């Protein structure tokens, strides 16, 4: 059976889509943006690999999805895979039933920006394509294997038992894909202890033992952890009372500052974009240089901390826009971790072509790899896996389920 899966990632005013077919290299993808405004449009790549730009003035999510699907209908997708940021305590991809949709709704207080947008997209695709199986793939699911000593905060117990206040972790689809692919490249598929650094506009780290997440840098929300484009990562939690008492800020203003005005942007007072900062630092901008240094130092600290979750370190995988493309950031980060025995080959690091997989250590110490992430491919694969399980007539209890590779 040919299996093409439409992967959908709905944001508040945008929809990313990708049609992933069995021959994964023939991918059609695009972005509907500015939804609900006169500037609404779809930009993407067509079947023939040509650029597409289509104006859809004032289109909402449903209209945009209808337009996207009209253009893709002749590819006959077998299923739709929805990226959902927060799945609460759901541990794996799930068929979207009324019960699962309710669980996504219940997790909304934990992802107030993301989950409502996903629900709008889910609602629209369910109405437009009632005959297609629709699967939710959660960013949080991969981290549900964390032990309680990694996911609990040192807060009063009732906040956990009654209000689900705990660490969940995010970017799970990326950490899962990169650690599986990377360990495969390293010749020890899903075996051993690996650290992953997903470095994009949002960034997080993860410790993986025998293919399972044992700790990660993001927590209750995607704000905890390392320095990001506009997010602060870890700060002293007393910052809230300090700013409220001394500057009279309310909780919304503090939250906005920590999520949208901090990180690389806050430190540099220039940009959230690492490329811009590297260029500015080269031209002598000291704030940009400091932002880069704090980013790398705190990233190294996070990796060192997560190593406590691993009996041994076999290696480290870099991914995401920064991790895949910046030899400088990789080198600077590893320079803060000499006691782990990482031995970077500067030559291999600098020679690695953008967007390619490659090993960049010098052959001694833990391995270091760059592995371009493929969240859409992973979502498609998990979607296929759930659909295949639905189509199987009966699964005997003793029969192990096929693993998602
Ligand atoms: P992502 O969110 O994964 O798309 O990553 C976006 C981040 O990757 C931005 O901060 C970009 O500046 C950064 N990025 C992309 N290419 C490069 C590059 N060649 N060098 C440094 N940063 C890069």
Number of domains: 2
Largest sheet: 8 strands, mixed
Number of helical segments with 4 or more residues: 15
By CATH, the architecture of the largest domain is named 2-Layer Sandwich
EC number: 2.7.2.1
GO biological process, one term: acetyl-CoA biosynthetic process
Subcellular location: Cytoplasm
Binding site for ATP: 16, 198-202, 273-275, 321-325
Describe this structure in words.
By secondary structure, the protein is of the alpha/beta class. The chain is built from 15 helices and 14 strands. It has 2 domains: 134 residues, 2-Layer Sandwich (Nucleotidyltransferase, domain 5), CATH 3.30.420; 190 residues, Nucleotidyltransferase, domain 5 (2-Layer Sandwich), CATH 3.30.420.40. The C terminus is likely disordered. A hairpin with a 7-residue loop joins strand 2 and strand 3. The longest helix is centred in the C-terminal third of the chain and has 21 residues. Helices cover 37% and strands 18% of the residues. It binds adenosine monophosphate. Adenosine monophosphate binds next to helix 10 and helix 12. The site of adenosine monophosphate has 12 residues, from helix 10 and helix 12.
Task: Set out the fold topology.
Blueprint: E1 5-10, E2 15-20, E3 28-33, E4 41-45, E5 51-55, H1 61-72, E6 79-84, E7 94-95, H2 98-106, H3 115-128, E8 134-138, H4 148-151, H5 157-161, H6 172-185, E9 193-199, E10 203-209, E11 212-216, H7 239-247, H8 251-260, H9 263-268, H10 274-282, H11 286-306, E12 315-319, H12 320-325, H13 327-335, H14 346-351, E13 358-359, E14 367-370, H15 375-391
Parallel strand pairs: 1-6, 6-8, 9-12, 12-14
Antiparallel strand pairs: 1-2, 2-3, 3-4, 4-5, 7-8, 9-10, 10-11, 13-14
The structure holds adenosine monophosphate.
